[in-house]
Design goal:
Blueprint (H helix, E strand, L loop, with lengths): L3 H30 L5 H19 L5 H15 L3 E6 L4 E6 L5 H14 L3 E4 L15 E9 L2 E10 L4 H57 L4 H18 L6 E3 H19 L3 E7 L7 E3 L4 H12 L6 E10 L2 E8 L24 H12 L6 E4 L5 E8 L20 E5 L5
Parallel strand pairs: 7-9
Antiparallel strand pairs: 1-2, 1-5, 3-4, 4-5, 6-8, 7-13, 9-10, 10-12, 11-12
Helix pairs in contact: 1-2, 1-5, 2-3, 2-5, 5-6, 5-7, 6-7, 7-8
């Protein structure tokens, strides 16, 4: 099945192809005109303008985005004017001269939209009533097709009619369409990421909430002060886990929430659960996908230590590794046969292992395939899950309104539960 990540890669390839096509035609156009500057300088200018237009168009087909993109497109094409319309033919932006001629172009634009095909018309067929020479000699209207539908049109007004100019208009429209498609795919990618976070929340509920409330209720009569403390920890845990804003968080905030989780689990398992924490302070502000560590800790407790007679130790490590942070969640529990790893890859869909496949997919989607989870395990030898997280990644920003954070003091401890 094709994933959003696959679509993004495919669209990126299409974007490169469209860019190279426009660039190649532009080079030929420059040579044909024998411009005074070198072809190399013209190509560099072309690449610069294409880069600027790309970033503008990634915001979607809006008036603001069109206003920013059309000047760059007009300079790329070396034409009289460039305009962009929406799917109804309404002009979003017109950069250059002859803008008073749009009234003569309405029928041409409508045909391009309705037929999903380029339209080319010269000045003689426009019914222009201008006395004297007109800067508009040729017009090409190319539909902008996004996900199979016409999202608008690109209008290229030229002072001369030529096949090269028509072809340049077509390739530029394809370039614009590809940027708009990438914007759609990015929105789909964000929606998928939000859906994956919701799936993790849904798994937290049945696996943890019931046992937490049961533990708290059992302490109400025997130790009400402890019960109140656990109830507060539970409230903060759920507030963080079920928040609606932000797809990313800091390692500091994720560890704080893990502290709440383990405090409640410690009340349930007692001395059977021991925690060792080794956190380098310089990686506390590293940004990672929201709810990427807590499910791994939950798996270690539920599937590794809870099934081991006498319990065991959970070790959470985060260390500096140059441009990355190395984070691991390790238990000395029952472990498993490494051959079963492929079996549990999608086990998050049934609840057998909370979020393993989900987390792996999110890490690969956000940071790249080289950031997939690494799992080390063997029967009766425990399990260790390792994550590599880049310190800096494009468009990966934390939500900054989560309240408490861990201090920047180095942490090395061995204790029944984590304390912030």
């Amino acid at each position: 099945m094709c994933t959003v990540g696959d679509l993004l890669t495919e669209r990126a390839v299409l974007g490169v192809i469209a860019t190279l096509a426009v660039l190649g035609l532009f080079v030929m156009l420059c040579r044909a005109r024998r411009v005074s500057t070198s072809v190399e300088d013209a190509v560099m200018d072309m690449l610069d303008r294409m880069s600027k237009a790309s970033s503008d168009l990634r915001a979607g087909l809006t008036q603001e985005a069109a206003d920013k993109a059309t000047p760059h497109l007009r300079e790329m094409l070396r034409c009289v004017a460039v305009a962009i319309t929406d799917e109804e033919g309404t002009v979003l932006s017109w950069d250059g001269g002859a803008n008073d001629h749009y009234e003569y172009l309405r029928d041409t634009v409508a045909r391009a939209i309705n037929n999903c095909h380029k339209e080319h018309v010269d000045h003689r067929k426009l019914g222009c009533e201008l006395q004297g020479p007109c800067s508009l000699h040729s017009v090409v209207v190319v539909p902008l097709v996004v996900e199979g539908d016409v999202a608008g049109t690109l209008i290229v007004v030229s002072g001369v009619a030529s096949k090269r100019q028509i072809r340049m208009a077509e390739e530029t429209a394809r370039f614009v369409s590809t940027q708009l498609e990438l914007e759609v795919v990015q929105k789909q990618r964000q929606a998928l990421a939000q859906a994956e976070v919701k799936a993790l929340r849904a798994q937290i509920s049945p696996h943890f909430v019931y046992n937490a409330l049961n533990t708290i209720s059992s302490l109400i009569r025997t130790d009400p002060a402890h019960a109140r403390e656990l109830l507060q920890e539970f409230a903060e845990f759920t507030r963080y886990s079920f928040r609606t804003d932000g797809l990313f968080t800091t390692l500091s905030d994720e560890l704080t929430n893990i502290d709440r989780y383990l405090t409640i689990e410690q009340a349930r398992y007692g001395s059977r659960l021991t925690v060792r924490l080794r956190i380098a302070p310089e990686v506390l502000q590293v940004v990672l996908p929201f709810l990427v560590l807590q499910p791994l800790v939950e798996n270690a407790v539920r599937h590794g230590l809870a099934k081991k007679p006498g319990g065991g130790m959970l070790t959470i490590t985060a260390e500096d590794n140059g441009s990355e942070a190395l984070i691991s969640v390790e238990d000395d529990g029952v472990g498993m046969d490494p051959d079963r790893l492929d079996d549990i890859k999608d086990a998050h869909q049934t609840g057998a292992h909370v979020g393993i496949g989900n987390i792996n997919d999110r890490m690969r989607t956000v940071f790249g395939v080289e950031y997939a989870l690494v799992v080390e395990t063997a029967p009766n030898a425990g399990t260790k899950v390792i994550l590599k997280v880049p310190k800096f990644a494009r468009n990966v920003l934390p939500n900054l309104n989560l309240g408490n954070q861990l201090t920047d003091e180095p942490m090395t401890s061995e204790q029944p539960a984590i304390r912030a």
